[in-house]
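Question: what's this shape?

___
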Amino acid sequence: MFAAALAGVCLTAAGCAGDGGPVPGAAPQAASRAASSSPSPFPTSSARRPSAPAASPSAGATSAHPLPRGPLTGRTVVIDPGHNPGNRDHTREISSQVDIGTGRKECDTTGTATDAGYAEARFTLDVSRRLRTLLEERGARVVLTQDGDRAFGPCVDERARIGNKERADAVVSVHADGSATGNRGFHVILPAAVHGGAADTAKIVAPSRELGVRIAGHFLRVTGSAPSNYIGGSTGLDTRADLGGLNLSTVPKVFVECGNMRDPEDAALLTSAGWRQKAALGIAEGIGSYLQR
């Protein structure tokens, strides 16, 4: 039903899941917020053949092998795989409150899962590893906030600090949503203008929006998935002021909600290794487009 509209669709900034997203079995999220105006067209670029994910160095570390020279040589990208498979075994620790600038929030959550039990934390780590490989092939230095080598976490404030410490040119937090059946599609979450406590996003709002617009456009083109039909007014963009991972960032950063794990049609995509490779490629091409603009 979106096919005809997508050819000329534009992105706008608008108002999904929290830093964590819903816990498996939790009540479905509320439906959409209205999108604002200020359209920007989806960018385009030539597709390339996906490559297999690389072996995983330790979290926070760069690749042990020399990087090839490429269009992203000299650039640093931090990839933040949402949640951690071990969070479910450390509910007390991840329930501790941390400062997110606009208040306090849980350190992290377990994330959501498909009805068949495929966890968001497994999905995000898989896509993030694939994304790392694609970016490294283009010469980027890539850092993961966690690579399945921590017992739990890191907390959302630490995830932001990792990107800040690395002085990343771009940070992308990979997620999947946990909304109601029938709610489908992807969306990219952008930081709102926030000033309070340790949070001041004034300098990153505009570049983060540019990063998000480019990722959304390439994600659409490569995966064929439509923008969310329940958040962002079909723009593929949502602006949030309640996410510590965005509020505390001092470098351009966005969240990518790749689909809704609770919808059977989206779940079929999210559980497909082939589609996850396309998702990683779409995000990589969006990041590359942003860094080479």
